[in-house]
Known about the structure:
With 635 residues, this protein is of the alpha/beta class. 53% of the residues lie in helices and 8% in strands.
Amino acid sequence: MEIETDQGLSLALGAGRIRTVAALLISEVNQAVPVNRLIDLAWDGDPPARARGVIHNHVHRLRQLLAGHAELSTRGQGYVLLADPGSVDVHRFRSLVTGARDAEPRVTVSMLRQALGLWRGEALADVPGERVRKTLGTGLSQARLAALQELGGRLMLLGRYGELVTELAGWIVEHPLHEELTALLMRALQANGRQAEALDHYHRARRHLKDQLGIDPGPALSAAYLAVLGGGRGPAPAAAGRPKSAARNRAPAAPAHAGPEPERYVAPYVCDHRPGPPPRLAQLPPAVADFCGRDRELAVLDQYLERVPRPACLVLAGTGGAGKTTLAVQWAHRHKAEFPDGQLFADLRGFERPPMRPGTVLTAFLRALGVPEAEIPESVPEASALYRSLLAGRRMLVLLDNAGTPEQARPLLPVASGCLAVVTSRRRLSGLVVRDGAALVRVGPLTSQESLELLGNALGRQRVEADAAAAGALVERCDRLPLALRIAAARLMAHPEWSLACWTKKLADERRRLQELSAHDDLGVEACLYLSYRALSSAAARLFRFLGLHPGPCVEVQDAGVLAGRDVERTRRHLAELCDAHLLEEHAEGHYVRSEMVRIYAAQRVEAEEPQSARDQAVRRLLAHFAQHRGPSCR
Length: 635
């Protein structure tokens, strides 16, 4: 393990348990690591009485070492390393592997090579502590092996057999008992016309397994052996990647003398593989340690869970930064016992470009459920049918985060009565409610009391209570959004010399508020609003911009139509789209409200994207409308 500066200089980390503390903080960058966990892992569960003081000294030493490079802060009963995740090779590796899944094969190969090139040997080899190496190192090694397999499969799809054979030879020396890698090497050799070598590798692996572990080859290695014995090169992609069709379901070819071939019934894809129950799946992200509030929303979710019959899907909808994912994960962890067969999780990235494709998620879910790669259908409807079949009779929770459209989430919904899907989105996903019987749970801002509690959990209650008036003003400046509150708290933690009153005064400047409530990794209120704004239709986006010229938080439908220069009926449709995206809320018929930061963002967008002449004309129309109707009903 090493820490290097931007100039490539290695920092003198030293030996001993400080390396364990550093490894944990760096591996969970930007997340609070409790002191008790640091103690437990640093001493393999048997700490001395002075362990807390030793950890404190190690953290103090790391602070000195990282000064000017990264920030190490106290958070509650733990510590958090605040740094760019891209500066940690583990996070770069995971990001590249994740991005590679949705790229075209040649780009995928390049990204996977780049990710694997970050490795320099066994993970955490020089970090003391058996427990920490098992906790972190084993997972990293498994992720590396998965990336190796993915790279091998893509090289097979591209027909680069010779290149793959050369690389696999080195990988198998490092992992001689890994049957899937040996099976992949056998298929690559077969596709390269080297059948005898493929069989030789099989027999060598079989003997090795017998001598070392006393077991026979498993399904993957046995299937590769039978395929090689069958002879012929065959279509390489089908051997390593997903089949383009199920050969066993094809109708027999028509005789040469036959006339035009009649339309035939093609049986749906049927997977001959009948996987037994896989190891209990637990894919949920970790719950936030300082979660607070949301009693109303949690109670509503509990009621739906207890309802008979209960809905098969719950949609948690709210504006970006409202804490939908945090709430969903917290609730899911609380109810894991009711889903004893495990939990599946996927970030659908519905408002990013490109969003996650349902087929990609289905492939990952089917792999997790024990379906071999070669048995996973390429067709989304077939993969979805197989996925639902495998969930039949099981009790599983499926958490689909950040869905962009009903169509993106629908193929991933289970239908088994014992399963439940929880979907989070910035939109209401009315299609799932109307067509699929989903229940809609609105996730709005926190209450003022909940916001103060969240601020107190992050900063310490004493600091918040010492300036209660400023703290109250701060949560309102943040629109009581958890994301904004956490960013504000992070800035205040980074500057303990700042007073709450000083920071609140900064946020009073509307020209700077969104900028101040943004983190350096494109995480912030402005970035959230941009993603929601970008997903609007052009007409709704235009209306949103012109609403930035309206002076108050409340807007009537007539005011909006006058500003945009559109008739009332068309304006209603576009306002409905803004409500669906949670950029507005209709409090009464024809009366809409918006948060302060949404109003500020709309004002920024109209100034940036509309010419001065168009803005002037819109303001004149609105003033004339106000004069005629004695001003808006809500200012």
